[in-house]
Design goal:
Elements (H helix, E strand, L loop, with lengths): L1 H11 L14 E11 L4 E5 L5 E5 L15 E7 L2 E6 L6 H13 L3 E12 L4 E6 L5 E5 L14 E7 L1 E9 L2
């Protein structure tokens, strides 16, 4: 469904015409490759300030074996989006099993727990600082329960779909 939505959005006009509120927006970025996981096909891209974003690069988009840390690339991608937000201790064990089964069928879905660093209600975004990890900027669609009650400093567990590359082009340094 997401691929269909992205194809429709691309066919309807330039990314600038998309509303900036939801993770269906398309982001264009240029940065330096910080890391490449060839097994999961996840590339960490860093901008000039050192902020990073992890982007899943599908096989049909680019052969990640051709990338190395330090490479400069231009990428268009759909940002990461939260599919659930819960407080520690929730959901129940049965719900966890159902979510884990759903995650197994969608390898780009991952989970993280940590402290909420910021919440932007107008843009429906939150920044999560996972235990022992780098900050994650996540879009949150209106259908995701728990966002409206989430505050800075809260400890939460989040399931999210990784950022997905639509195009990736190596550039000279």
């Amino acid at each position: 469904m997401k691929r269909f939505l992205i194809a429709v959005l691309l066919a309807c006009g330039p990314a600038a015409a998309l509303p900036p509120l939801y993770p269906t927006e398309i982001v264009s970025a240029r940065g330096e490759v910080g890391a490449v996981d060839r097994t999961t096909r996840v590339v960490t891209l860093r901008d000039r300030s050192g902020r990073g974003v992890e982007i899943l690069v599908p096989e049909e988009v680019f052969d990640v074996s051709r990338l190395a840390p330090g490479s400069v690339v231009e990428v268009q991608y759909v940002p990461a989006s939260a599919s659930s937000i819960s407080r520690p201790g929730a959901p129940s064990a049965a719900e966890e099993r159902a979510l884990a089964a759903a995650d197994a069928s969608t390898p780009s879905t991952v989970a993280a727990s940590g402290r909420v660093v910021s919440v932007d209600r107008a843009r429906r975004e939150l920044v999560l600082l996972p235990d022992g990890g780098a900050p994650l900027r996540l879009g949150v669609e209106p259908s995701v329960p728990g966002f409206d009650g989430t505050r800075e400093g809260d400890l939460v567990s989040v399931r999210f779909v990784r950022a997905h590359a639509l195009s990736l082009t190596p550039k000279p340094q």
